[in-house]
Hints:
Belongs to the EamA transporter family. The chain contains twelve helices and no strands. The chain is an all-alpha fold. The model has no long low-confidence stretch (mean pLDDT 83).
Amino acid sequence: MSAALALLASALWGTSDFLGGSVSRRLRAAQVLAVSQVLSALVLLVVLAATGRVTSPPGSWIGWSVVAGVTWAAAMGALYTALARGTMGVVAPIASCGMLVPVVVSVAGGERPGALQLLGAALAVVGVVAAAGPDLTSSARGQGRATALALLAALLFGIEIYALARGSEVTVSGSLLGMRLSSVVLVVAVALAQRRRSTPVGGRDLLPLLGLGVLDLAATAAYALASTGGLVSVVAVLASLYPAVTLLLARRFHGERLSRVQAGGVGVVLAGAVLCALG
């Protein structure tokens, strides 16, 4: 069940990244993040109110949820800037390797994945890099800065998913709410600071932005639930296969073609996911 939830999170994150990238062609990244996160926060509050889980006893989860929200917002800012300045084939696989942070920390903390899970995780990492089609020989202007920002995003994403997993050990609903509200404060502040240089968000943008926010929220919830029932060192890898999903959607809806390396990478990703699940 944990493996299935983690893979669901990966599929949802990959879809939300595709939708977010598409919407960002019309709007600033800060606007996309701010509006989608505010809408998803409202959806989360409605769901928690309907299920009677709005409040949770105070505890360490509050700190973990704030760390998750702050690092997520900062990571998204670094990632969007890197994608705008550098080669996407370099930025995407680097940023997705943030999965290694919770893997290393969890194994160091005593988790012991099985042989099949370790092999599957290794294959998944290699597959993600291959599927993203990295062009590490690119000499495009600003690529060095973009690579540095991608590394920063990877580190922040790794901290985020580890912090969310720790907070979810106490309360999934409270951690989700704390993370969402923390990220909303930051992204809204940035969007307001840039409002004079931004095109106003129109009515036609609200539905895709709502969809983006709900997809991201659902992915985060699926990962949080998966982390409570499985090894974080394995769940983090399975939940970080989203670049392959984004790539497939881009091929389907934008006509982007897969090279042989990319197609092989997608296959390796799937093989790694199967091994992790079997393990």
